[in-house]
Specification:
209 residues
Amino acid sequence: LVVELGLKVTAINAFEGNLNRGERGFLNQPARRDGADAAFAEAVTLANQTGCSAIHVLVGRELPNVSRTVQLGYVGAALRDYSAVGEAHGIDILVEAISMPTPPGYLLQTPEAAASLIDDVNSSRVRMLYDAYHVASCGGDPVADLQTYAPYLGHVQYADHPGRGEPGTGTVDLWAFVDTLSAVGYEGAIGLEYEPRTSSIESLAFLEA
């Protein structure tokens, strides 16, 4: 239906587990690698069907009693395998810094951590999903920090902070965000991942300003 309507899908999530139980992916759990591989394969099929060029893979919440280094090693190994599939299909693999309360929090809670993982994987197909809300939530500056993370960008999302509402409900200037993205050479889509304070249609009034 999306293709028939002439719309474009720019990024999708691979299956991330049971959200109601707090799961956010499981690449850091070798016992669940087969399930992660199957979920990624399903996402690749869907991406091919919709013409989508990026898949966001959630890496998992940090496990107790297992070192971060070991967990990130499991994640890196999976991402290297997925990057080869992505290369064959023309699909980028996205990883995102997600700020979550601890313990246990998401394994990648800051853009620095996401960038370090991407550097370790060392594949042009593994990119960063940069989310303005989560960058602000972990104490960063979503606009200024784009200068640092521009080389890693694969997809970008926006919600205001605090509150995760539409533009104007917090402190993250959407238009400064857009201008800086343009200045650093980003030409991709900007996903609006906010929770509207009114209706979805009314929350888009800023586009007419």
